[in-house]
UniProtKB/TrEMBL annotation:
Coiled-coil residues: 372-399
Gene3D superfamilies recorded: 1.10.8.60, 1.20.272.10, P-loop containing nucleotide triphosphate hydrolases
Entries under NCBIfam families matching the protein: dnaX_nterm, PRK05563.1
Tagged with keyword Zinc: yes
Catalytic activity as recorded in UniProt: DNA(n) + a 2'-deoxyribonucleoside 5'-triphosphate = DNA(n+1) + diphosphate
Domain annotation AAA+ ATPase: ranges: 37-179
Protein name listed in UniProt: DNA-directed DNA polymerase
Chain's gene name: dnaX
């Protein structure tokens, strides 16, 4: 007969042979014993925790010739045929490979037929979450009200993918991960029955690598036995499972404790060269430092150690650490583990974590040692200043700190760093004409659309206010925008060039902030006698100056000018609101 793997040969055939899951076993056995079984069950939990095995045992107990019984006898014809897989009334259905609605309808059509040789017709649907939505819908009504002779047992590792309408029609049993001691105990039974010598430290390494799954543990045990030959060794188990030896944990922990980062990185490099996964290493180190904390806080609970074995060297190492150091190291490794999920350079993250761990508990240097006399004098001066301010506040006075004048001067210098070209603006005003400012405003929107986004952003709060034949004044609402535009030579050249394309004139922009423009304009009107009360100037002038009162009132809106240009003045009528 061909060789069979341990997890197949030693599959439990009764509830008593199942490892762990006592909450599931007791509930099912009581239901069997008192005839309180229902029509649908949902077994959910991690892989290798006994879901399918429990379903088959439950099926045998339901159809056992000695029923009602809490355990199948495994001797009657029904129990034997179910164990061998030849019973036609117990149908195992793999939803992973038969997920279409057609397969589910074929099952539903046969549900109404009575069982051939047994009391119940039992459907065990494994990996039920793989069914399609249409298959779930086809199963739904039958699952809710099946014939009395039918029992459905659904098994899944991902219950969150099942529709709530399916879950609500089943009795749900959540299978838990098996503890390390339970896995070791089961492996001892298997090896004893197979007459194979074993080492409990080796079995502990295998159980830790199995991560709570019995099938994984038995598969790894099968590999280690095949690899080792006559006797299982720790080196063989570490090589097969990808774990590292406890001595390596000791060496790296002692190197980190001694702040010998070179030795720690060298040992890490050796582990990576040997094929160890940095992600797995981080997880193992978290478990190892957890074991150190456990021995520190509760020395009697050495049975709860997950990675380390209880030995004198481990206890001595635990005494060397402060609990705060272990807490900080675990915190660093936990954050590193999260960051590793999004990177392909996991080794670099592990090396960085070791550096952080060495520096995490570095002693804080005392600030009192080696203080210079100048620093002491400065501290004394600040203390006296604080006391003076506190006294002034207590007396109700508003204290102005001595640093305020210097700060105010710096603020004034930063505000006055842009020099307003007053003379240049006055030249534009002297030669300003309405036709030039209208030409600039009419083409303003078109030029804005041609500028780069960064340049156009500066002009969102800007407006042309005056123009001569060769220049125009550009007023900015915010001083910072005005300064940025004036300092950007590329912007000024690009803007002037675009404007020339549409107006035919090379207008040079002159920049001015809003507040400064109002003052310059007012001073220009006063100094040139352009007030509205100056009738002599008004009579002598054949054309109103753009900055006389009448000229200012008559200054055209750029949108009106654009509308008149497009449609003609005769067709544009302005209504004031």
């Amino acid at each position: 007969m061909a060789y069979q793997a341990f997890y197949r040969v030693y599959r439990p055939q009764s509830f008593s042979e199942m490892t762990g899951q006592s909450h599931v076993k007791q509930t099912l056995q009581n239901a069997l014993l008192y005839n309180k079984t229902t029509h649908a069950y949902l077994f959910s939990g991690p892989r290798g925790t006994g879901k399918t095995s429990a379903a088959k045992i439950f099926a045998k107990a339901l159809n056992c010739e000695r029923a009602p019984i809490a355990e199948p006898c495994n001797e009657c014809a029904a129990c034997k045929s179910i164990t061998e897989g030849s019973n036609t009334d117990v149908i195992e259905f793999d939803a992973a490979s038969n997920s279409r609605v057609e397969e589910m309808r074929e099952i539903i059509e046969k549900v109404r037929f009575s069982p051939a040789n047994s009391r119940y017709k039992i459907y065990i649907i494994d990996e039920v979450h793989m069914l399609s939505n249409s298959a779930f819908n086809a199963l739904l009504k039958t699952l809710e009200e099946p014939p009395e002779h039918v029992v459905f047992i659904l098994a899944t590792t991902e219950p969150h993918k099942l529709p709530l309408t399916i879950i609500s029609r089943c009795q749900r049993f959540d299978f838990k991960r098996l503890t390390q001691s339970d896995i070791v105990e089961r492996m001892v039974e298997v090896l004893s029955d197979a007459d194979i010598p074993y080492n409990e430290h080796v079995l502990k390494v295998i159980a830790q690598a199995a991560a709570g799954g019995m099938r994984d543990a038995l598969s790894l045990l099968d590999q280690v036995v095949s690899f080792s030959g006559e006797e299982m060794t720790m080196e063989d188990a570490l090589l097969v499972t990808g774990s590292i030896s406890q001595d390596m944990f000791y060496d790296i922990a002692e190197a980190l404790l001694a702040k010998d980062i070179g030795q720690a990185l060298t040992l890490l490099e050796k582990l990576v060269r040997d094929g160890k996964d940095p992600v797995r290493l981080v997880e193992d180190f978290i478990t190892f430092f957890r074991d150190l904390l456990l021995i520190q806080t509760a020395p009697d609970l050495h049975d709860m150690l997950e990675l380390a074995s209880h030995e004198p060297r481990f206890e001595e190492l635990a005494k060397k650490f402060e609990a705060s150091t272990l807490y900080s190291w675990i915190d660093v490794l936990t954050k590193t583990q999260q960051e590793m999920r999004f990177s392909n350079h996991t080794k670099i993250y592990m090396e960085t974590a070791l550096l952080k761990m060495v520096q995490a508990d570095a002693p804080v240097r005392s600030s009192a040692a080696g203080v210079s006399p100048e620093l002491e004098a400065k501290v004394a001066q600040l203390e006296s200043l604080v006391q003076e301010l506190q006294q002034q506040v207590k007396n109700g006075a508003v204290a102005a700190p001595s640093v305020a004048p210097a700060e105010q001067k710096r603020r004034q210098r930063s505000q006055s760093s842009f020099k307003i070209p007053v003379g240049r603006i006055q030249d534009v005003l002297k030669n300003a004409t309405k036709s030039d400012i209208q030409a600039v405003k009419t083409n303003w929107a078109t030029v804005m659309g041609q500028l780069q986004r960064s340049h156009a952003a500066l002009l969102n709060e800007a407006e042309p206010v005056a123009a001569s034949s060769d220049a125009f004044v550009l007023k900015f609402k915010y001083d910072i925008h005005c300064q940025m535009a004036a300092e950007n030579q590329t912007f000024a050249a690009a803007f002037s060039q675009l404007l020339q394309q549409y107006t035919g004139k090379a207008y040079t922009p002159v920049f001015v902030p809003d507040a400064s423009w109002l003052k310059i304009r007012e001073d220009f009107i006063k100094s040139n006698g352009l007030q509205s009360g100056n009738e002599e100037k008004k009579e002598e002038s054949t054309e109103e100056h753009p900055f006389s009162a009448e000229g200012a009132a008559a200054e055209e809106d750029p949108f009106i000018a654009e509308a008149e240009r497009l449609f003609g003045k005769d067709f544009v009528e302005v209504h004031e609101e």
